[in-house]
Amino acid sequence: MIVTIDGVAASGKSSVASGVARALGVPFVSSGLLYRAATLLALEAGLSLEGAPALLAHLEANPLRLEPLAGGNRVWLGGRDLTDDLHSSRVDAGVSAVARLPPVREWVNAQLRLLPDPFVAEGRDMGTNVFPHADAKFYLTASPRVRAERRARERLEDVPAIEAALVERDRRDAGQSAPAPDARIIDTSALSLEGVIGAVLAGLPA
Ligand code: C5P
């Protein structure tokens, strides 16, 4: 069984996917971490975030591995665990440009399609492009202010600055983030994390 949970930035996808996966006793897969790791490698190597050939050659020479652990995904570069460096504002600001490059998307999607099911996959295009035959699909939204307030609990920036960055990232991600026609859309603005997890579990096929 494959369940997809897509949605806008900071809509709570990974917390929800983690909770749903735990309730089902399966792993969850956080696709955004691979885009973030590709961005971190490009930044560390001083590569242009728009130059697909050099970026891809660098990714092929430095293989990244996504480890879909039930408690939280990790990304490894050989023996180096990159995970804790993937949510900086620098990576946030660059990741949409990297994620727009078709060869990078193919590289990420090929890795995701190798994972054995069952799992819950979260991202932007899990239900549309990567797992169009998923058994159940969801798309999470929330107002920019609510998302910024949630993220402010994890970052040292103020809410208006975070909100502006989220709105800008939504704009840049619009081309690669859309609900599948058969996805259930859940507006999480007024829901607790447990409430969203419950809504997803209630929407699964029997
Ligand atoms: O989900 P998260 O916010 O960590 O994703 C980081 C970025 O990776 C997104 O802003 C988007 O640019 C890109 N992404 C994507 N497709 C996915 C997952 C993430 O383009 N399936």
Task: Produce the secondary structure layout.
Layout: E1 2-7, H1 13-24, E2 28-30, H2 32-45, H3 52-61, E3 64-67, E4 74-77, E5 80-81, H4 89-99, H5 102-113, E6 119-123, H6 126-130, E7 136-141, H7 144-152, H8 159-173, E8 184-187, H9 193-202
Parallel strand pairs: 1-6, 1-7, 2-6, 7-8
Antiparallel strand pairs: 3-4, 4-5
Helix pairs in contact: 1-9, 2-4, 3-5, 4-8, 7-8
The structure holds cytidine-5'-monophosphate.
Structural class: alpha/beta
Mean pLDDT: 93
Kindly state the number of beta strands: 8
The CATH architecture would be 3-Layer(aba) Sandwich
Q: How would you name the CATH homologous superfamily?
A: P-loop containing nucleotide triphosphate hydrolases
**Mind telling me the CATH class?**
Alpha Beta
Strand residue content:
15-25%
Which spans of ≥5 residues are poorly predicted at pLDDT below 50?
none
Determine the N-to-C terminus distance.
12 Å
Let me know the largest β-sheet. 5 strands, parallel
Cα shape: globular
Task: Give the names of the bound compounds.
Answer: cytidine-5'-monophosphate
**CATH fold call:** Rossmann fold
Helix % is: 40-55%
Number of domains: 1
Walk across the major sheet and give the strand order: 2-6-1-7-8
Helix count, DSSP H or I runs of 4 or more residues? 9
Tell me the Rg in angstroms: 16 Å
